[in-house]
Amino acid sequence: MTQLEATKQVTSDGQPRTLKRIAAEVGQLLSTSPSEASISARLRDLRKDGLEVVKEADGEGGFLYSVRRSAAAEPAVNTPVAGSRSAIAFANSLK
Fold first, then answer.
1. pLDDT: is 44 or 81 the higher one?
2. CA angle 7-23-14, nearest 5°?
3. Cα–Cα distance for residue pair 9/3, rounded to 1 Å
4. Would the pLDDT of 12 be above 70?
5. Which CATH architecture has domain 3-73?
6. How far apart are CA 28 and CA 31, in angstroms?
7. How large a percentage of the chain has pLDDT more than 90?
8. Where are the chain's structural domains?
9. SS3 category, 46
10. Does 36 score more than 90 pLDDT?
11. What pTM value is reported for the model?
């Protein structure tokens, strides 16, 4: 398992965590001690992979990070495909 995969696994529940806590949990999975800087880099990599990384103040001068699927990456529900029967029926229903 790579550090990126471990970071994704640790953060996949969407719970806010500090970089220190993410690093500790990733370290447990990999039996290593990743730095907070390397975890921050992995969070940037997750952004590049289309996930949304939310950064919020923790009220004590630090930050909490949570990861979730980007709304743009999720398929639209019940959206007719252009040219399909359902799209044509939908368009006709608007007339």
1. 44
2. 50
3. 10
4. yes
5. Orthogonal Bundle (1.10)
6. 5
7. 71
8. 3-73
9. helix
10. yes
11. 0.72
